[in-house]
Amino acid sequence: MAESSLKKTDGKNFTAANIGKWKELDNYTFTHSNLPAGFPGKLFLKKELGLTGMEVSLNKMLPGEGMPFYHTHQANEELYVFLKGKGQFQIDGEVIDVKEGTVIRVAPDGIRAWRNNSSEELYFIVIQAKADSLSGENISDGKGTGAPVNWTES
Question: Would you call 98 exposed, middle or buried from its count of C-beta atoms within 10 A (0-12, 13-18, 19+)?
């Protein structure tokens, strides 16, 4: 299944989609011209949802799989949010055990790779954004509209 096959709903100020069940994430395959093979279980959302300030990928890694090369970023920091399973993450030569609930921020220059060294599937989300691009505290960016919340029954 290609990334462009997502069924989306677009509104004036939103885009919504359903990727399906997490266990079926390997129906999506990420391909890149610089890589010899595709990565099943990886879905980038920037293009799909029209993201303008971040990139988000949804990831499923099978037992015994791992990132096949170290990499860094030019400008983006990354946040890894581990949802299910177990594995290991390596940053600048330091190994961190990861499992459900582990979150890791990596600066652009951090040399990173990860692997699933367990017998279960590893699920995680990666969020990329330009390092040092947020100003102030994130809570100060939100503002109330004054309108009461009204849910219509469906």
Answer: buried
Structure tokens at 97: 């055990």
Give 105-132 pLDDT, tens digit per residue: 999 999 999 999 999 999 999 999 999 9
User: What is the C-alpha to C-alpha distance for residues 18 and 67, in angstroms, rounded to an integer?
Assistant: 26
Parallel, antiparallel or unpaired: strands 94-99 and 103-106: unpaired
- Is residue 96 one of the residues assigned to a domain? yes
List the Cα angle 147/136/51 in 5-degree steps. 70
| Number of domains composing the chain | 1
Determine, yes or no, domain membership for 102.
Answer: yes
Tokens of 146: 């004054």
Write the CB contacts of 38 (distance below 8 Å, at least 6 apart in sequence).
Answer: 29, 30, 31
Higher-pLDDT residue of 134 and 5 is 134
CATH code of the domain covering residue 68: 2.60.120.10
State pTM to two decimals.
Answer: 0.87
Its domain, for residue 104, covers 44-132
